[in-house]
Each structure stands twice: as structure tokens, then as C-alpha cells.
Amino acid sequence: MVTATTTEPRTYGGWRRSRSLGIGRLDSRQTVILMTAVLVPLLAAAFGAVRLAFVLAGVALPVLGLALVQRGGVLLMDLALARARWQWAAWRGETSYRGGVFAELPRAWDLPGVLAPTTLLDVEEPGRGRVGVVWNQRTGWMSVTLLLSPAGALLADRATVERQVAAWGDLLASLADDETVRAAAVTIELVPESGTQLADHVAGRLDPDAPELARRVLGELVAAAPRGAARVNARLTLTVDPAAGGARPRSVPEAAAEALRSLAGLSVTAAGADVLRRASATDLVRMVRCAFDPDAAMAGVSEFDALTWGEAGPVAAEDLWDHYRHDGAYSISWALLEAPRQRVCHDVLLPLLSPGRFPRRVTILYRTLSRDEAGAVLEREVNAAAAREEYRRRTRRDPTARERADAERAARAAAEEAHGAGLVQFSLFVTTTVTRWEDLADARREVEQAAGRSRLKLRIARGGQSAAFAVGLPCGIYPPAV
């Protein structure tokens, strides 16, 4: 007799937010502010300046409130600083952009905001045709994009899915061996389509003479498929610093060639995605133009051939505090605040990547650390966790469950790195775009509900909407380097 056995699905986790050395739950910056706010008034009183001590104490209280109190997972100090910087930029007119016929002459930049230093190179790659390379003239970095066709995992067996996840981990780990790679971004764009698209597609191709079993299976698949549908566009953008390699290119063509060589070593197919082709200059212009003007997606591909990089951007754009207005469309962008605390299955992001009523763009941004840097970072994290544990012991305070779990994850990550595992820093950005102002609140609610079902905690990129919007474009924008 054969007995069927079932195994639990494999789960994934172990990620944690990087924490610097500090008192208790405070980081190093908060600790310095706390010590300064407490010690300065005490020192003033010790030297006899009692009146000055009271004045300094009155100033220290609101400073401590800004440095210690959080709102929506963000320190009030950071929110106030972001608001001040955005307001100063708004007063100087730096949050408004006018391009095309409205641009002042001579034009220094073609695109708004953080995209301003970028320009597009149309490169001929031997044996592959024309390839588009985005060159950031400020940093010298080059970005190239692969257009992908993700196979999906809904109909794949568990073993196949686990192999694909492992292959993706190996791909990320391999980037650490290329010292020129600065960041990698995977972007999924969802554009709503008719919910009857799959049924119409199957009905138009079903052979009347097909076996009854085949017809019944197809009917059950169509009935079980989600009613919502979307056009899915996937891409992988690799950003490299050609000057960081041993070759040291002396010209822009040599730097572009170095970027293309880094792209050649990626094994994406094993991770469950087929590579359609390398994005051409026309592909990049079309993706950027359609992001700023969704109505442009109705135009034919050939109509983008004559557009320049400057014409891919908006005619007018306004970077507002909590949303972005561009060419008659409205967008809201979010940044990842906290990843799932628990271990999750491979399909944890499925709710966020499922079709909705409004267009959505989801970008996962990766930074791979070299072997030496990864070891130093993890050693620093373990030491910081040990210092916090020593502080709790001396103050006779029992650690919380979260503190114990964080220390365990830090130690486990260091042990895994010591045995050859790679270390990746990642973040996630989400953008939704609507063409009617009345739909913006509903689109925002849809994204936040989907993120909650995916166990993600997002925050609106207040004061940085245009920058967060640009991260999802195939232009190699890496926020820490902006």
C-alpha cells in the first residue's frame, strides 16, 4: 500500500532593517541628540548658569520630541526636514517643470528632477542590433534594460518554484562578484484590461474537434481564472559604474560597452523569466513617455522612433507634497517602510502584483554588497546588537520579543555570510497613475489594501514624489546616489 505524504511549503525570510549602535531602540543619531539635549542643560546648571539652563531645557524638549517621536513609522525630525526642503524648493520654483515649447532657452536639461542629468545613447552591439543605454552624466553610471516575459508560478509545481527562487538568489549573489554593478531594479507594470480577455482568447482558438476532456479542462481553467486582467510588462534594469572596474574606460562608447558586458552575465531564464530582448533606445523612450502620459500608450510603436530623449519627458509637471501631476495625469508613489516580519511563501507579493482597477508600477530595487563589504556590515550589525544587549543587562531590563528576534536574525545572517552567502540591500517602490483627479483617492486605497495583503508596510514618499516616480523608470535612478 502506498501512503501519500505532504510536506510544508518552503518559506523565506531573514531580512531585517539595518540598525546602528545606540541606546535601547534608538539609533546612533537619536542617541547623540538625546545625550546632547540632556547634558548641555545640566552642564550649564553645573557652572552656575541656572537661567541659561532653563532656556536650554525649553529648547531641548521640542528637539527631543522631533528626534524620538514617530509618525507613520517615520521620525518627526525627518518629516519636518523633508517638509522644509520641499517648501524651500517650491518657493524657488524647483518643483515645477515646463518642457517642450514652454522651456526657456538655452535648455540645460531635457527631463525633470532627478532625471535631468540623464541622456540616452543608441549603441550598436555586434550580433544583437541596437541597444539603448541611459547615461547619468553626473555620476557616470550606465543603465541597460532587459525586457522580460515572466512565466508566473500559479500553474507551476512546488519544486519548480523553489528552483526558480533559488536561481534568483544565485543571480543576485553573482552580482556581488562584479565590482562595477551598483544596483539592479526589477519592475512590473500592470495596465488593466478587460476581464473577458482570457475567455475570448480561448474561445477563438478552441478546436471544435478537440477531445472532450481537453475542452472541459480549458473551460475549468477559464472559469477558475481571476475576472480581472491586466497587461503585464516586466523588465530588469542593471546600473553599473564602468570606472569601478579594472578596465577603466576612457570614452563614453567604451563605458557603454562595459555596461553591456555586465548584462551578458545574467542568467535570468533559470529564475522563471524569458528574456525577450535588450531594450532599444525606442523602447526606453516609449516606456518613459507612456509613464508621464498614459494616453501615449495608444500610439503605435513606430511613432516613437522620431522622439528624442528630451521629448520622452512631460510637457509640464508639478512635484507636490503627496502626489505628482504630469501631462494631465496624477500619480502617487510609495516607498517600503517595513518588510514582512514573519517568514512568507513565494507568492507573498501576489496581491500587490494582481490586476486592479488602476495602472500600477511595482519596482524592487537591489544593491548587492561585495564580499568584503558584506562581512564588515554584518559584523557591525552583530556588534550593535551585542551592545544593545549589554545595555539592557546593565539597566536590568528584559529584552522584548522583537529585540530577541532581531538579534537572532543578525547573528544568523552573519553566520550564513561566513559560509558563502551573499548580502543584498533592497527596497520597494510602488506608483499608481490615474487620468482623473476623482480617481486618485480610490487608486491610493487600492494600493494600500493590496500592500497590506502582501504583508508590506508602505509609506507615501512625501516631499519626494517625482524622485520615487523616477525610480520605477528604466533610467537607473538609485535614491542614495541622488
SS elements, strand count: 15
Strand content: 15-25%
Oligomer kind: single chain
Computed structural class: alpha+beta
Polypeptide structure, described:
The protein has helices at 28-46, 50-68, 76-91, 158-175, 197-203, 212-224, 252-264, 281-292, 371-394, 401-418, 440-453, 465-471; strands at 70-71, 74-75, 96-98, 118-125, 129-136, 142-150, 181-193, 229-240, 273-278, 316-319, 324-326, 329-338, 360-368, 424-434, 457-460. It is α+β, with helices and mostly antiparallel strands and 482 residues long. The chain is built from twelve helices and 15 strands. A hairpin with a 2-residue loop joins strand 11 (324-326) and strand 12. Helices cover 37% and strands 22% of the residues. The protein is globular, with a radius of gyration of 26 Å. It has a domain at 96-369 and 422-481. Mean pLDDT is 84; it is low at 1-5. Helix 1 packs antiparallel against helix 2 and helix 2 (50-68) packs across helix 3.
Task: Offer a quick outline of the entry.
The protein is of the alpha+beta class. Helices cover 37% and strands 22% of the residues. Helix 1 packs antiparallel against helix 2 and helix 2 crosses helix 3.
Ordered list of secondary-structure elements with their pairings:
Blueprint (H helix, E strand, L loop, with lengths): L27 H19 L3 H19 L1 E2 L2 E2 H16 L4 E3 L19 E8 L3 E8 L5 E9 L7 H18 L5 E13 L3 H7 L8 H13 L4 E12 L11 H13 L8 E6 L2 H12 L23 E4 L4 E3 L2 E10 L21 E9 L2 H24 L6 H18 L5 E11 L5 H14 L3 E4 L4 H7 L11
Antiparallel strand pairs: 1-2, 3-10, 4-5, 5-6, 6-8, 6-9, 7-8, 7-13, 10-11, 11-12, 12-14, 12-15, 13-14
